[in-house]
Each structure stands twice: as structure tokens, then as C-alpha cells.
Amino acid sequence: MELEALQGIYSEVKDLGAQIVVLTPELERYTRALHKKLNLTFDILTDLHLKIAEQFRLLYVLPDYLREIYRSVGNALDRFHDEPEFRLSMPARYVVDKHGIIRAADVSADYTIRPEPSDTLNALRALKDQLAPGRPSFVYPN
Amino acid sequence: MADLQSRLDQFKKAFESGAPPYNATQEAIETMHRATRELETSGLANKALKVGDCAPQFSLFNQDQVEVNSPDLLRQGPLVVSFFRGHW
What we know:
- Chain A is α+β, with helices and mostly antiparallel strands.
- Chain A has helices at 2-15, 28-37, 51-55, 64-72, 77-81, 117-131; strands spanning 19-24, 43-46, 59-61, 87-89, 92-96, 102-107.
- In chain A, the strands form three sheets. Chain A has a two-stranded parallel sheet with strand order 1-2. In chain A, strands 3-4 form a two-stranded antiparallel ribbon. In chain A, strands 5-6 form a two-stranded antiparallel sheet.
- In chain B, a hairpin with a 4-residue loop joins β1 and β2.
- Chain B is built from three helices and three strands, in the order ααββαβ.
- In chain B, strands 1-2 form a two-stranded antiparallel sheet.
- Classes of the chains: A alpha+beta (142), B alpha+beta (88).
- Chains A and B meet through α1, β1, α2, β2 and α3 of A and α1, α2, β1, α3 and β3 of B.
């Protein structure tokens, strides 16, 4: 659902001069199928063994009692991610400016909560206003 | 299109009803709630990188096995980086 929502704002993101990438621990043979199925026009990148998620400090280890449930419904992390340690990334969305500085960050411990794509667009708009020299983001009324 | 969170909420409601196609047991639902509560209480989300931090650089392969690196992307403008746990 989140990928489709990001696709929904993609043209506006492009108009703002920005790009989208999605990072997932899933192996390429799965991202390829997903990318095709959803007709995405941005890249899904395989963050093998969650190395980049770790650098963003998003990693957690699934508790033992949850592993059994995931297994019972066929969610085989070891197969999809090559991840025998049962680590996962918390869901997160960042906006990074062209200097590599994080300008918006949404991280959630509850995987059923995601930031709205419209919030991401607003962050990009704010960034564009700040970057445009001599263009005030607020004009005083006469 | 309804906003993302209301669609997620709708899915959660359908899943937690225990009805097909998910047929989630009450026990499984309780366990998932417990795990979410524990992760929230751990405060781990507050330790993640924040506004003002420097984003780590990366070089990764996309769905077509083409290498994509963040410095190249950032040269063209701002970047939305979304972390996704998987299709499952």
C-alpha cells in the first residue's frame, strides 16, 4: 500500500526536482516481481542484510514469540531476505537534501502507522522554498 | 483515493476481524500487539537518525540489478528515502 501511495505522488516529487528510492532487505528476485506488478517508476533497492537500515539506526530483532507466528503464516524472512537473524527495519521515510542532510524524518515503532505521502510532498516544498535564493517563503501583506 | 493511513487502518480492521482471507487467530493478533507495544516502549524509534543528521551514503542494486548510489542521486536534487520491510 505504501509503495502505491508513493507512486501516486511520484510525478509531483519529480516536478519538485526530487527523486524517490525505496530500500528493502528483500532480494532482487522479489523486488523485480514487485516492481513490475505495481508498475513503479522509481527504484526499489536491495539493502542486503539491512546494512543501510542499520546505519540509519532502524534495526530491531523480532522477538522469539513472533517468529513462530511469522513462520506459521509463511513469512519466511530467511528466504526473502537471506536473514537468519530475524532482524527487521522499523518503517521509516526520510527526506534528504542535496547536501546529504536529513530534512524530514518519520520513524514508527508501530508497523501499521505510516506517514502520509502528502507530508512528504510538503517537506519537499518547504525545502524548495528555502533553497530558492531571494524568494521569500512568506510575503508580508501590505 | 483515500489517504494512506485510512487504507492501512481498513486493512488492519479486516485482518484483526479474524475473517477470511487472513483467518488470523486472536492469539496471533494479541502477540503482534504485544510485540508492537514492546518495541514502542523500548524507545528504539527515538534513536533512529533525525532531522539535521547526515544521511549515510549508499550504493545498492535496484530491481534490474543496476547499481544505484546516493551521491549520484543527490547531485540531481533532494531524495525521498523510504524503508520498506517487504512484500509479504
